[in-house]
Amino acid sequence: MTLDFDVAMPVALGIGLAAATGFRVFLPMLVMSAAAYSGHLSLGENFAWLGTPQALIMLAAAAAAEILAYYIPGVDNLLDTLATPAAFVAGTVVTAAVITDLPPMLKWTTAVIAGGGVAGLTQSATALLRAKSTLFTGGMGNALLATGELGGSLLVALLALAAPMIALIVVALFLWLVFRLVRHVTRRSDTSKG
Description:
This protein has seven helices and no strands. The protein has helices at residues 5-23, 26-37, 53-69, 75-98, 104-137, 142-162, 164-193. Helix 2 packs antiparallel against helix 3 and helix 6 runs antiparallel to helix 7 (164-193).
């Protein structure tokens, strides 16, 4: 069985955008909205509202507020608690919005499992990194982490639009590196206690 290119690319695009929502919930949705509004991205008919000027304005305001809030100590950790379920929902929505050529049952199953799953996994990884940063730096390193997440979100969202398969490779590499780093830091912490 071969995977049809016309099906694989929208799925990869959706998963790439979903992963970007794991870094920042609203920024990838803003990028997707801008691409749809400018005619560079086709959305499913139920998601055409994402390409409207109203959605663009709303998502720009939400993205700006989210970006700024992650630079406020204490608020960043609170946001991670709220962003985890929000990233799952946003990942599901962006994935479903760009998958237009699958039957509804398969589309939504893919959106929930792949889109929501990778968004939740990416958000969980960044929340874990922030928790470790807060613990080891007293929150002083969190601004650097917030900047990295912002850059990662924008990079992955734009890369997903330009080269979806490469975006998936970048996300897989990021997740692998994060889990190796967390495992290393946890082992070092356990060794210093013992």
